[in-house]
């Protein structure tokens, strides 16, 4: 019951674990505040780009009108890194380049007719620059602005990163991105150079953004990456859940059914044991009377009435056999109930041996079994007489059942000051090696062709070993070249106990 309950709980918990699913779901924040603000910022960037374009054109016009020099009033145009003057009539165009920071010139815009094929030259045709103005955007070249007047042209090489810093300050002052700190989720606003201009909510750089807003300008690209808030939604797979709970219920119901069946079987077994015990008790009195009256009838027969004597002898033998079976069943029942008792009392081994010899003589004679009895112990010993007699009776009964026709057996009793040793041997087929550990278990019998069909309950050796243990001794099956060899050891001291 406990095992099935534990299994049911385990299956139920496993089903819950397997049926549970966690899904990470992104939630679009309510409102369009971020999108609207980004569009406003984009419009402002476009406005600043227009203003920058106007300022660049004015600076180029100043250079064409006033001469090729830096402004003297400090009104520098943001983002101009280099000023270059191109004149179609110059014989040496290398003198017409002026860096804002005073460093060496990196790019040298020249008309094609003055080109010397040097790596730092930026070659233009006269038709490109002498008229009008506009942006110069070429691959692998910096952003530039040009303006021409028909005779000369000015090229302003730009550093859009310098201008983007000014633009960023303007946007930061106008839109205050720190005001979006309470916006759900996370966001990262990066400047054109890739640096984080504003971040909120510690966005994961490795995570894929849910929304990307980008505004492309000549200052560079302004990018806003948005990460929507994520919540964990738990769902359950109903088929798995129902299946696991159903299996758990079946396990629990099966455990209850098995427990009820087992309890019923135990109760029935107890009733059977109790019945056998009662019947065995009831059989003891009539068996005793049968043995007594059979002995009286045999003693009262005339000397020449051999036929009646043989029949009465047969009745006595079978009654004795039945009496031994009843004694073993009663002993086993007491052992099972924990009520087996052994008590030491004065015992004469010769008397016990004589009774057993007389009991088994007709049985051995019928099978032509020759049994030798040798007792080397004399006097009265302190031990349980009934248990000792029952053990020897079971050992001799095994000889009669399993030793076979015309077998030879021997009972040797020796003793010392502290113990008595009994060996019962025969030259029969013996006990198979694989069955030696089982013969002392209840209802176990070592099968062979010799003992096939032999009667018995399989309790004799189990009860005998138990009785020997209760007397403080032991009963063992010893190795032998032929037949079976049992050794009983009983200490000669007073013992009393309850199984």
Write a structural description.
The protein has 499 residues and is an alpha+beta fold. The protein is 43% helix and 24% strand. It has four domains: 2-20 and 236-260; 22-40 and 163-232, no CATH class; 50-154, no CATH class; 340-499, Histidine kinase-like ATPase, C-terminal domain (Heat Shock Protein 90, 2-Layer Sandwich), CATH 3.30.565.10. Strands 3-2-8-7-6 form a five-stranded antiparallel beta sheet, with helices on one face. Helix 1 (2-19) packs antiparallel against helix 5, helix 6 (306-337) crosses helix 7 (349-366) and helix 7 packs parallel to helix 8. The protein is rod-shaped, with a radius of gyration of 59 Å. The two termini are 29 Å apart. The model is unreliable at 448-453 and 494-499 (pLDDT under 50).
Order of strands across the main sheet = 3-2-8-7-6
C-alpha Rg (nearest Å): 59 Å
Question: Which topology of the largest domain does CATH recognise?
Answer: Heat Shock Protein 90
CATH homology group of the largest domain: Histidine kinase-like ATPase, C-terminal domain
- The helix content is 40-55%
């Amino acid at each position: 019951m406990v095992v099935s309950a534990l299994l049911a709980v385990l299956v139920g918990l496993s089903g819950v674990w397997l049926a549970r699913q966690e899904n990470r779901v992104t939630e679009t924040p309510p409102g369009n505040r971020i999108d609207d603000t980004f569009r406003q910022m984009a419009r402002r960037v476009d406005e600043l780009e227009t203003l920058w374009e106007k300022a660049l054109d004015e600076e180029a016009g100043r250079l064409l009108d006033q001469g090729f020099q830096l402004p003297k009033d400090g009104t520098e145009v943001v983002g101009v890194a280099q000023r270059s003057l191109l004149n179609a009539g110059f014989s040496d165009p290398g003198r017409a380049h002026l860096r804002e920071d005073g460093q060496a010139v990196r790019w040298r815009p020249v008309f094609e007719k003055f080109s010397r094929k040097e790596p730092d030259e930026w070659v233009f045709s006269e038709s490109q620059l002498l008229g009008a103005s506009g942006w110069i955007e070429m691959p692998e070249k910096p952003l530039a602005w040009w303006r021409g007047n028909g005779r000369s042209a000015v090229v302003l090489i730009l550093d859009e990163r310098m201008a983007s810093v000014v633009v960023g300050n303007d946007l930061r002052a106008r839109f205050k991105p720190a005001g979006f700190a309470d916006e759900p989720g996370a966001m990262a606003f990066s400047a054109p150079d890739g640096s984080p201009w504003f971040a909120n909510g510690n966005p994961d750089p490795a995570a894929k953004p849910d929304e990307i807003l980008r505004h492309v300008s000549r200052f560079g690209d302004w990018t806003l990456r948005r990460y929507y808030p994520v919540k964990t939604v738990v769902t359950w797979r109903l088929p798995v859940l129902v299946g696991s709970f159903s299996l758990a219920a079946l396990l629990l119901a099966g455990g209850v059914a098995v427990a009820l069946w087992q309890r019923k079987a135990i109760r029935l077994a107890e009733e059977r044991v109790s019945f056998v015990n009662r019947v065995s008790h009831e059989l003891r009195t009539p068996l005793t009377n049968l043995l007594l009256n059979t002995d009286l009838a045999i003693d009262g027969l005339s000397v020449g009435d051999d036929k009646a004597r043989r029949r009465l002898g047969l009745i006595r033998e079978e009654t004795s056999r039945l009496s031994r079976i009843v004694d073993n069943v009663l002993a086993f029942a007491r052992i099972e109930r924990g009520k087996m008792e052994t008590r030491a009392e004065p015992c004469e081994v010769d008397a016990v041996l004589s009774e057993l010899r007389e009991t088994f003589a007709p049985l051995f004679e019928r099978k032509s079994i020759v049994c030798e009895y040798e007792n080397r112990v004399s006097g009265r010993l302190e031990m349980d007489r009934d248990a000792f007699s029952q053990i020897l009776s079971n050992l001799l009964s095994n000889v009669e059942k399993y030793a076979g026709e015309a077998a030879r057996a021997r009972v040797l009793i020796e003793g010392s000051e502290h113990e008595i040793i009994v060996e019962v041997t025969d030259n029969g087929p013996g006990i198979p090696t694989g069955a030696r550990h089982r013969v002392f278990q209840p209802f176990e019998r070592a099968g062979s062709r010799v003992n096939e069909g032999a009667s018995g309950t399989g309790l004799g050796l189990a009860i005998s070993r138990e009785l020997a243990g209760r007397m403080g001794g032991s009963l063992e099956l010893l190795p032998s070249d032929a037949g079976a060899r049992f050794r009983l050891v009983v200490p000669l001291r007073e013992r009393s106990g309850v199984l």
